[in-house]
Amino acid sequence: MRTATVGIVGLGYVGLPLAAAAARAGFKVIGFDVDHSKIEKLKTGRSYIGAVSDEALQSVMADGSLRATSDFSVFAECDVISICVPTPLTKQREPDLSFVENTTRAIAAYLRKDQLIILESTTYPGTTDEVMKPILEARGYRSGRDFFLGYSPEREDPGSAGFETATIPKVVAGDGPVAARLVALFYGAIVETVVPVSTIKVAEVVKLTENIFRAVNIALVNELKVIYGAMGIDIWEVIEAAKTKPFGYMPFYPGPGLGGHCIPIDPFYLTWKSREFEVSTKFIELAGEINVSMPHYVMSKLSEALDTRLGIPLSQASILIVGVAYKKNVSDVRESPALKLIELLESRAADIAYHDPHVARIPKTRKHPMLAGKDCIRLSRDSIGAYDAVVIVTDHDGIDYGLLANHSRLIIDTRNAMQRNGIVCDRVVKA
């Protein structure tokens, strides 16, 4: 058993896997969250995150390696505190650091000498030094002398069986050489590989760079999808052929838009910060515009197909959305393009239902609160046949695509799911 007590603030898709990994590494771990329902589930050994099974959770809870609480006064017991809270955008697409700021203030109230405080939340360069550090130093303590401050960007990939917290290389940095060494030592005890960088700002930008890279390339193939579609060319066939080139090409795939906490949000953290330096981010902002427009494109393809194939206007159509999570095989609906698409269709008076094997009920979200409480329907021959069109938005593995093919009148496929599952159906329209 290691002697340090570790606090993990924010027990979501990043924090809970980190807490479990730290506990397995031999640390005594205390998980903090303001959501009391999460705390109660954890106390009974029930996980709400796919990356942490009930069995894995129960093993570290049973031996006392991990406990969960909403009592922030327990921060005083922690030698290391890792902050894994949300960093969303405001309606004006500006950084909302309220979760980071409030957490830092709570830590500052119980700050003691020699604690190591690490931010993992994705943010713009300068957040750790310019926002967190002054709050922590407000009572007279000094970073690098009385406490130590660091940054290490999260790198979780929900739904991926090939990666887990302990095997994903961890970028680390600290405020000064001692802090940098402590951050590297801490994560080195949990993960297989640590990647030290020279400054906290570099570490903050690494995470932004990773997600901007994906956002820009997805925007490119989304734009190509629209262009090639107008020419009668299948973008997915093009990509499959292009990726046979063993050099100079990396495949990215189009879709109905971007979802999740990272890719739709992170680029705008950099564009906001860039204004301070009077530097434009035209390329990044254009990519954002293209990706944001994709639900509108899907709706237009659906409307056209309903009209030309079934003679039904969108305002009189009943539509079944298949998949509302932001990516396959997860239950996370944050920033999901499916929610935007549902709202767009309902604004046109279409009758909408959804099926998602991972989302029994749509939870309350910041952008789409009116959809909260909408229940999943079961897929069956009769339920599918009751709708004029099916729109595949999220291509979960657990969906019976053959059933969809056999009993639907029209399928709008935004993920090429039917063809990838070997199903040939003349009622499929790719979008």
Polypeptide structure, described:
By secondary structure, the chain is of the alpha/beta class. The protein is built from 14 helices and 13 strands. It has helices at residues 15-24, 36-43, 54-62, 98-108, 127-137, 177-188, 200-230, 235-242, 266-274, 282-310, 337-347, 381-385, 401-407, 417-420; strands at 5-9, 28-32, 66-69, 80-83, 116-119, 148-151, 170-174, 194-196, 318-322, 351-355, 389-392, 411-413, 428-430. Strands 3-2-1-4-5-6-7-8 form an eight-stranded mixed β-sheet, sandwiched between helices. A five-stranded parallel β-sheet has the order 10-9-11-12-13, covered by helices on one side. It is globular, with a radius of gyration of 23 Å. The N and C termini lie far apart (54 Å). 45% of the residues are buried.
Explain briefly what this protein structure is:
With 431 residues, the protein is an alpha/beta fold.
Q: What is the number of E strands? A: 13
How far apart are the first and last residues' alpha carbons, in Å? 54 Å
Counting helices, strands and paired strands, the structural category is alpha/beta
Helix content: 25-40%
- Share of residues in strands: 5-15%
Gross geometry: globular
Order of helices and strands: EHEHHEEHEHEEHEHHHHEHEHEHEHE
Looking across the biggest beta sheet, what order are the strands in? 3-2-1-4-5-6-7-8
Q: Overall mean pLDDT score?
A: 94
Low-pLDDT regions: none
Number of helices: 14
Q: C-alpha Rg, in Å?
A: 23 Å
The largest sheet, given as strand count, sense and whether it forms a barrel, is: 8 strands, mixed
Protein name: Nucleotide sugar dehydrogenase
Domain UDP-glucose/GDP-mannose dehydrogenase C-terminal: 320-420
Pfam families: UDPG_MGDP_dh, UDPG_MGDP_dh_C, UDPG_MGDP_dh_N
Keywords: NAD, Oxidoreductase
